[in-house]
Specification:
- The chain is mainly β.
- The chain has 3 domains: 124 residues, Roll (Nuclear Transport Factor 2, Chain: A), CATH 3.10.450; 297 residues, 6 Propeller (Neuraminidase), CATH 2.120.10; 37 residues, no CATH class.
- The chain is 12% helix and 42% strand.
- It has 6 helices and 33 strands.
- β8 and β9 form a beta hairpin.
- The longest helix is centred in the N-terminal third of the chain and has 21 residues.
């Protein structure tokens, strides 16, 4: 008997210990059944090595040489048992298993592939830590949002790790997906989702049925209302230590367009000469009367919430336009935000602000994971582009640009917006409409190699909408 056949026979015997054979309709065990059984056995064998310390030395037997598996899974001795939720042979070379690890009922997604005569684990991702409690709440719900995967697709060999949480549009569905393009599922609905520093929870806001801030575990359980009472709450962000959340809210200013007129004959009888504001639009004069429109001019402010006490923390920046807030990932005392004249940096200790840029076109800025860079959406002559700056506001670099041939032939410029950093700081995801519809793309940190984030059809059927109102479309941990 050859070595290859011996290995195959051992694998069949091992799989048979764990998985009952699935028979075809005519009662015969087919090749496809065999592969499904072998793949299930591999997944179960790996899970046994994770949950049984005596078998941890066998982990390498089940893993590919470049398998993507978090160290928190391989080195975590707290799991003592597992339960298979679903298992499926996707195609001849790809198998997917979902299981719950105990204690804690933590979800793990395992993708296996066919390698030189046997099945091996390519990736294993912890979907959430359901034992992590959201802190200090005013309302708790148990929302059954752990919905079925939208698409079943093979993993992408892109070398990317972690998980992306994204919204399709403000207030719409919020999804989670592995960076290799597997495990897509809906978590909840809302806007501007951001994953917590420890990767276990999500913070987001809703405007219906009331303006409120929420947290939820990444598997869709334990959704909680953290705070309410501020108008149009959006852009929430976690402090680096996970103890606070900052968000933007609207208060004051002009909420709708306002139409005014000046009768010049009447003003001559008064001592005060009226002045048409610089922001006036649609100015017309007829029969001695000037009419004009003042556009909506809402004021925005920042607010922090202490998650332990559920108490608000004053976060006055001194500007009437403070929104798109984001905490520094390493320093819990620094918050970047969009002000009336550019990007500003707020210090929570001194409760003071200082400008980072003086360009009001900088919007929705986010720090790199190490806090040394800032990526922002930039309003560039009628369309959006992605810019990167140093954390002190210097060294601006434009990363996206529409080719001249496209602007001439299509008579338009592409929109590129809403950048989000990869966990290692080497890539940026962003939204673009260059194909005629909004899509999620990725590029290197210097703007090179721009391409669709997923090429395996993982997001087929999902429609994105970017409104240009400082949306946070993606969070990647």
């Amino acid at each position: 008997m050859t070595i290859k056949k011996t290995v195959l026979l051992i694998a069949i015997i091992i799989a048979g210990l764990f998985v009952p054979a699935v028979m075809a309709d005519e009662g015969k065990f087919t090749v496809q059944d065999m592969h499904d059984t072998l793949a299930q056995g591999t997944a179960k064998g790996f899970l046994m090595s994770v949950t049984n310390p005596d078998l941890s030395a066998s982990q390498d037997f089940y893993l590919t040489s470049n398998a993507s598996v978090p160290t928190t899974l391989l080195n975590n001795s707290s799991f003592n048992s597992f339960e298979i939720v679903s298992t499926e042979l996707l195609d001849d070379t790809t198998h997917q298993t979902t299981a719950l690890l105990n204690p804690g009922q933590e979800t793990v997604l395992i993708t296996s592939g066919w390698y030189q005569g046997r099945w091996k684990v390519e990736s294993a991702s912890l979907m959430s830590d359901t034992s992590a409690e959201a802190t200090s709440t005013t309302e708790q719900t148990s929302r059954p949002t752990n919905r079925q995967t939208t698409t079943t697709v093979p993993a992408i060999s892109n070398g990317l790790q972690g998980q992306l949480v994204f919204q399709t549009y403000s207030g719409g569905p919020i999804y989670i997906i592995n960076a290799n393009g597997t495990g897509l599922r809906e978590i909840t609905t809302g806007m501007d989702p951001q994953v917590s520093p420890d990767g276990t929870q999500l913070v987001f806001t809703r405007w219906e049925p009331e303006y409120a801030l929420y947290t939820i575990n990444l598997n869709g359980t334990n959704e909680r209302q953290v705070a309410t009472g501020w108008r149009q709450m959006k852009s929430p962000s976690w402090s680096a230590d996970g103890s606070r959340v900052v968000f933007s809210y609207q208060e004051g200013g002009r909420l709708d367009d306002e139409y005014r007129s000046i009768n010049w004959a009447q003003t001559m009888r008064t001592d005060d000469t009226p002045r048409i504001p610089d922001t006036a639009r649609d100015i017309e004069t007829e029969n001695g009367t000037t009419t004009y429109r003042l556009p909506m001019d809402a004021y925005w402010h920042l607010q922090q919430i202490d998650l332990l006490s559920a108490m608000p923390i004053d976060t006055s920046t001194g500007s009437r336009y403070s929104y798109g807030s984001s905490f520094h990932p390493q320093n819990s005392h620094q918050i970047i935000y969009r002000g009336d004249r550019g990007l500003g940096l707020y210090d929570t200790t001194s409760q003071t602000s200082r400008p980072l840029t003086t360009d009001y076109r900088d919007k929705a800025a986010v720090f790199s994971p190490d806090g040394t860079k800032i990526a922002a959406s930039y309003w560039q002559e009628g369309h959006w582009e992605v810019h990167v700056l140093n954390a002190d506001g210097t060294g601006r670099q434009r990363l996206t640009e529409t080719p001249m041939a496209v602007t001439i032939t299509e008579k338009r410029s592409w929109n590129n917006s809403a950048p989000a950093w990869s966990p290692d700081g080497q890539h940026l995801t962003f939204m673009t409409d260059r194909t005629g519809e909004w899509e999620l793309w990725i590029m290197d940190v210097d703007g090179a190699n721009q391409r669709p984030m997923f090429t395996n059809g993982a997001l087929d059927g999902i429609e994105f909408e970017y409104g240009g109102v400082d949306e946070r479309m993606v969070s990647w941990k």
